[in-house]
């Protein structure tokens, strides 16, 4: 006899682990860009503000995507799983390809530039939020973890970037893309 625990989110362990890995993969984009930005002369107060802003954007963007994904899943249930898998594979592949095509450009995460930076690194979380809505994953937990992981990874990258040079930037974005692509394949097959 299997005993099911009822928790706040009533989520299976496998689903929770998938959300954690997905949050980590999404945060890796902010991490890789944050490494480069952190190599500039940035004060600790600015690092705190940048990380918080990126985290907020990683909550808002997937929330919008989740709402749209939930709406779509109620109206087109048969195609929902296929669309979720293809979307995650596409995002992961785009992150990997973008890594090789990227040109170095100095980012100034101050004022409007900070919002542009946060929006840019959270665009992929909108699409992932859409696919999570399509697959019916727990909304509140997903967006909280997306924001938390992206904030922590951004802070970590900025602090590492202050101390080191381009050590992991490219590889971290490739890792994040591979994780998303892998989850997309998992949903499809």
Automatic annotation (TrEMBL):
Keyword field:
Cell membrane, Ion transport, Manganese, Membrane, Transmembrane, Transmembrane helix, Transport
Name its cellular compartments.
Cell membrane
- The superkingdom of the source organism is Bacteria
The UniProt entry lists membrane topology as:
Multi-pass membrane protein
Q: Which Pfam families match?
A: Mntp
Q: What is its main location?
A: membrane
Regions that span the bilayer: 47-72, 78-100, 112-134, 140-160, 167-188
- Give GO MF terms, alphabetically: manganese ion transmembrane transporter activity
Does the UniProt entry include the keyword Kinase?
no
Q: Give me the Gene Ontology terms describing cellular component.
A: plasma membrane
The family classification in the record reads: Belongs to the MntP (TC 9.B.29) family.
**What is this protein's function?**
Probably functions as a manganese efflux pump.
Q: What is this protein called?
A: Putative manganese efflux pump MntP
Species whose genome carries this gene:
Gracilibacillus oryzae
Organismal lineage: Bacteria, Bacillati, Bacillota, Bacilli, Bacillales
């Amino acid at each position: 006899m299997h005993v099911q625990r009822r928790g706040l989110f009533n989520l299976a362990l496998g689903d929770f682990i998938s959300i954690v890995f997905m949050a980590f993969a999404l945060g890796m984009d902010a991490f890789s860009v944050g490494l480069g930005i952190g190599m500039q002369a940035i004060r600790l107060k600015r690092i705190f503000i940048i990380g918080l802003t990126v985290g907020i954007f990683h909550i808002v963007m997937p929330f919008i995507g989740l709402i749209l994904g939930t709406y779509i899943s109620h109206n087109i249930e048969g195609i929902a799983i296929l669309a979720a898998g293809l979307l995650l594979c596409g995002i992961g592949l785009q992150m990997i390809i973008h890594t090789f095509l990227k040109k170095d450009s100095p980012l100034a995460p101050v004022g409007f530039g900070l919002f542009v930076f946060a929006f840019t690194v959270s665009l992929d979380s909108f699409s992932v939020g859409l696919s999570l809505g399509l697959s019916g994953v727990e909304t509140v937990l997903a967006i909280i973890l997306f924001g938390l992981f992206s904030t922590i990874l951004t802070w970590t990258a900025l602090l590492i970037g202050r101390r080191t040079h381009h050590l992991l930037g490219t590889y971290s974005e490739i890792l994040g893309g591979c994780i998303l692509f892998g989850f997309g394949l998992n949903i499809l097959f």
